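Possible regression after last week's pipeline update?

I re-ran a chain I had predicted before the update to compare outputs. Posting the input and the new output here so someone can diff against the archived version. Not blocking, just want to make sure nothing changed silently.
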Amino acid sequence: MPGLADDLQFRGLVHQVSDPELLVRLDGAPLVAYSGFDPSADSLHVGHLLQLCDLRRLQEAGHRPIALAGGATGLIGDPGGKSEERNLLSEDQVRANLEGVRPQLERFLDFSGEGGAVLANNADWLGSVTLFEFL
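New output (post-update):
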């Protein structure tokens, strides 16, 4: 049976790597990998499927996936490639959107146990950063 690195390459999911040793490590000791999700809506969409499938493959191979929600960056909004002003979301709306997304993530990832997947929110560490600290 091929290892995770071979499987990802076979499926065309690896285009380029900065260090080939990274692929070797996929078949070794457990690693942590993350993928980001924008909480500007209360539901995931088909565009998230590849990320979710990859996180699941990593978890099935013994690695720990982190679904990183952009709770702080989501407050800014997403112009969707348009030239119009971004729609700003309230903290309550972003929080509600994250609550809607979690059950969908749980359909792909196992959040139970010590080595389970993690849903992290960048608002937890960016929310208290002041403008002066940022600059």
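Follow-up from reviewer: compared with the archived run. DSSP finds six helices and three strands in the chain. Marking as no regression found.
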